[in-house]
Design brief:
Oligomer: single chain
Helix content: 25-40%
Mean pLDDT: 86
CATH architecture of the largest domain: Beta Complex
Radius of gyration: 21 Å
CATH topology of the largest domain: Metal Binding Protein, Guanine Nucleotide Exchange Factor, Chain A
Largest sheet: 6 strands, antiparallel
Shape: globular
Number of helices: 3
Bound molecules: fe (iii) ion
CATH class of the largest domain: Mainly Beta
Strand order of the largest sheet: 3-4-8-7-6-5
Strand content: 15-25%
Length: 178
């Protein structure tokens, strides 16, 4: 009786271990293929264009601390530190918070300023706001769909537009062209 119980317990534990290891493996494979927030962010979509207007209290529960600090508190990542600074793959850039389309890789250029730079943005992807913080007079760039901070735009870019969208890598989600 006792032996039978132990055997049943052993089989039960073995079954639980198999289920646990499978689900863990599945989660890890999701993390490797998704942006840093998408796997727990119900608002992230590269096709849905519905406006998102939720509080920072809610965003704080959804976003990683690094993305929250930049997207919702307008922090800036350290220069030369972002994964898209020295990066020239062909594809599309989306808002890392909501998935809204922001830039094409064909508008990216090497600016040596330390952050990924673009000479043109998707006009349906971004909006602008005057920013006089830190004793500077700048134009802030925000996501048009979710109002998250992306970076700033300056009038020292290359032709044909002459502008430089200076972005935080953390605010961007890149999808390579197939
Ligand atoms: Fe967004």
């Amino acid at each position: 009786m006792n032996l039978s119980f132990n055997r049943r317990s052993f089989l039960y534990i073995l079954l639980l271990m198999i289920i646990f290891s499978c689900s863990k493996f599945s989660n890890l494979s999701n993390i490797n293929t998704m942006p840093n927030t998408e796997n727990k962010n119900p608002f992230f979509s590269t096709t849905d264009t519905t406006q998102i207007d939720i509080s920072n209290t809610e965003w704080k529960k959804i976003l990683s601390p690094e993305l929250y600090a930049i997207a919702r508190e307008a922090s800036t990542e350290r220069p030369m530190s972002g994964k898209y600074n020295d990066f020239d793959e062909i594809g599309e850039y989306y808002c890392a918070v909501c998935g809204n389309h922001l830039f094409r890789s064909t508008a990216k250029f090497s600016s040596s300023c330390g952050w990924p730079s673009f000479f043109e943005a998707d006009k349906n992807g971004v909006k602008y706001r005057k920013d006089i913080s830190h004793g500077m007079d700048r134009i802030e760039v925000l996501c048009k769909r979710c109002n998250s901070h992306l970076g700033h735009v300056f009038n020292d870019g290359p032709k044909p537009t002459g502008v430089r969208f200076c972005m935080n890598s953390i605010s961007l989600h890149f999808e390579p062209k197939n």
